[in-house]
Amino acid sequence: MTIISNTSCHKIRSRYLVTLLFVVMFLHGCGGRPVAPVVYQPPSPNYSEPSLPKVGSQQPTAPKDHYAGPAAPLYRKAKTFMAQENYRQAELAMERALRIEPKNGYYWYTLAEIKFADKQYGKMRQLCLKSKSLAGRDTNLIQLNDRLINNAQ
After folding, report:
1. CA nearest neighbour of 111 among 147, 152, 125
2. Exposed, middle or buried by CB within 10 Å (0-12, 13-18, 19+), for 143?
3. Domain assignment of residue 79, yes or no
4. What residue numbers bound the domain in which 129 lies?
5. How many domains does the chain have?
6. Which of 62, 137, 58, 47 is nearest to 107 (CA)?
7. What is the pLDDT along the chain (153 residues), one digit of tens a residue?
8. 0.70 exceeded by the pTM?
9. CATH code at 94?
């Protein structure tokens, strides 16, 4: 029979106590934090659901209202640079627009158009995929991206 001395028993208890203290402190950080309540706000009376193109309709075109946000002047500037075949300046303007509105799939599509015009097909494809990921149920934007990808092949 082994007799444990009082000091070694104290050391064992101290180790368990320190371990227990660390576990409790670690698990305390896992506790839930209160979440702010979500308040429903009805749509404004001026809101109208965007219309979807009819099946078998004409070629898709980018609707004007997607280019009416706070970055619209940069979009227009990029389109002007594209018309002048100044693709670097067009790219810079669209990148600035995307810093302002990063979730605008139409801006990503426009940047893809710039890359297509500049014959950078790999980057164009990546930008089209990014645009499509932001499209949600916007079939018009999806069709625009698909058509641009198909034109590059």
Report:
1. 125
2. middle
3. yes
4. 64-152
5. 1
6. 62
7. 555 555 665 666 777 767 766 666 655 555 555 555 656 566 566 655 555 555 554 555 555 566 778 888 999 999 999 999 999 999 999 999 999 999 999 999 999 999 999 999 999 999 999 999 999 889 999 999 999 999 888
8. no
9. 1.25.40.10
Q: 93, 81 in Cβ contact below 8 A?
A: yes
Q: Rounded to 10 degrees, what is the CA torsion of 106, 112, 117, 121?
A: -160
- pLDDT for residue 68: 74
Q: Residue 33: what are its φ and ψ, rounded to 5°?
A: -105, 145
Q: What HEC string does 3-40 produce?
A: CCCHHHHHHHHHHHHHHHHHHHHHHHCCCCCCCCCCCC
95 touches 71 (CB < 8 A): no
How far apart, in whole angstroms, are the C-alpha atoms of residue 147 and residue 79? 19
- Alpha-carbon gap, residue 102 to 97, rounded angstroms: 8
Q: Give dist(CA 12, CA 6) in Å, integer.
A: 10
Q: Where are the beta strands (DSSP E) in the chain?
A: none
Contact by Cβ (8 Å): 91, 114: yes
Which amino acid appears at position 1 of this protein? M
